[in-house]
Write a structure and sequence with these properties.
Its cofactor is a divalent metal cation. It is an enzyme of class 3 (hydrolase). Helix content is 43%, strand content 14%. It is of the alpha/beta class and 388 residues long. The protein has a domain of 197 residues: HAD superfamily/HAD-like (Rossmann fold). The protein has an eight-stranded mixed sheet, sandwiched between helices. Strands 6-7-9-8 form a four-stranded antiparallel sheet, covered by helices on one side. A hairpin with a 2-residue loop joins β8 and β9. α1 crosses α6.
Length: 388
């Protein structure tokens, strides 16, 4: 009788999930059904459009500013005026398109069993964005508070898995919101990394404190641009400039849409004198960063190395984020063929993430499920140990 390869349920889940991570377009599985051709064309056009938007040091003139304003609108899916203009037929069409998108990026809650089966025998490492992931997006960035329930959930996660917050915010600002000393914090899009100040079972063997800042030479330049933008943006009501230490954020969430073009032109005019800085777009925010090869994906790799897991085949990184800057981390996971990227979005987005969650409330639910699964998986071992 010829031998046959038998795949048990856990192995099947691992095979399915890893194949999807490696090449979602080529694996028509139950986890990620095939994309429709229309959806693929639409996403490809959107991707090409975004590729034209990097302003570098600010060149490009009026045409480039116009493109930026169009993209600023695209980054505002909850724009009230736009929502009011939706006809019933358009809304129905949107629902259909969104349902197709969700089939390509299923809810991490729906495929939870597949995820934990794929992680069996591996060390899960959690990476979490902050704004829009652990806290809701709000008009005032200084009031993006994490709920007490979410904080306790993240604390529970950190008890079971190495956990990092990776944010575009200033590192100490994120810590002031979260206030959990057992976490790793990577601020300024990963350019300011610090390890836990409270020992856990994941860090007790590490004697050397983790601290990494690859862009310190840019600090004087960032400070100059911050002061210039603070002065010039006084002319744009509702605009706000946030100093994230190694990067800057120009928030336009509270700016009248008619003034977006003026704001983009103003930022461009300041950056013309700083060719070593680049401008990218987030969710209703313009991000100014040093032009170095460092991003949230590099931060993820650095943190895995700090944990001694850089070259391990037994690691399962999970990255959850809602912003375009989180795509760098999703692409790293895709390239490593390890772990899972989860995009937080209630609208259609081109993404390298495999799965999705709609809002922070679903993120919290997913994290709770993960903790409960880990606790239940540990129970048999504890019972066995007590018998001995």
């Amino acid at each position: 009788m010829r031998k046959q390869s038998v795949i048990v349920p856990e192995e099947l889940a691992v095979t399915t999930l890893m194949a999807v991570v490696a090449d979602p377009a080529a694996h028509h599985s139950a986890l990620l059904p095939p994309r429709s051709s229309a959806f693929g064309v639409r996403c490809a056009r959107y991707k090409r459009f975004l590729s034209q938007l990097d302003m570098g040091s600010g060149g490009g003139g009026g045409a480039r500013i116009s493109a930026w304003v169009d993209s600023m609108r695209a980054s505002s899916p909850t724009h009230v005026k736009a929502a009011a203009m939706l006809s019933a037929s358009f809304a129905a069409s949107h629902d259909e398109d969104y349902n197709k998108w969700v089939k390509q990026h299923p809810s991490a809650l729906t495929v939870f069993e597949d995820i934990v089966a794929a992680s069996k025998g591996k060390q899960i490492v959690m990476f979490l964005d902050y704004d829009g992931t652990l806290s809701p997006i709000v008009d005032d960035p200084d009031r993006a508070f994490i709920s007490n329930a979410m904080r306790e959930t993240v604390r529970d996660v950190a008890r079971h898995f190495p956990t990092a917050i990776v944010s575009g915010r200033r590192r100490d600002k994120v810590f002031s919101f979260v206030r959990l000393r057992e976490l790793y914090y990577a601020g300024s899009h990963g350019m300011d990394i610090k390890g836990p100040t409270k020992r856990t079972k994941h860090t007790k063997a590490k004697t050397k404190a983790v601290m990494f800042q690859p862009a310190t030479e840019f600090l004087p330049m960032i400070d100059e641009v911050y002061k210039a933008l603070m002065e010039k943006t006084k002319l744009i009501p509702g605009s706000r400039v946030e100093n994230n230490t190694f990067s800057l954020s120009v928030h336009f969430r509270c700016v009248d849409e008619k003034a977006w073009s003026s704001l983009a032109e103003l930022v461009r005019s300041v950056l013309k004198r700083y060719p070593k800085l680049r401008l990218t777009l987030g969710r209703k925010v313009l991000e100014i960063r040093p032009s170095i090869k460092w991003d949230k994906g590099k931060a993820l790799e650095f943190l895995l190395a700090s944990l001694g897991l850089a070259d391990s085949g037994n690691v399962f990184p999970v990255y959850i984020g809602d912003d375009r800057t989180d795509e760098d981390a999703f692409r790293v996971l895709h390239g490593r063929r390890q772990g899972l990227g989860i995009l937080v979005s209630g609208v259609i987005r081109e993404t390298s993430a495999c799965c999705s969650l709609r809002q922070p409330a679903e993120v919290q639910e997913f994290l709770r499920w993960l903790v409960e699964w880990k606790r239940s998986a540990s129970l048999p071992r504890r019972t066995e140990a007590r018998k001995k």
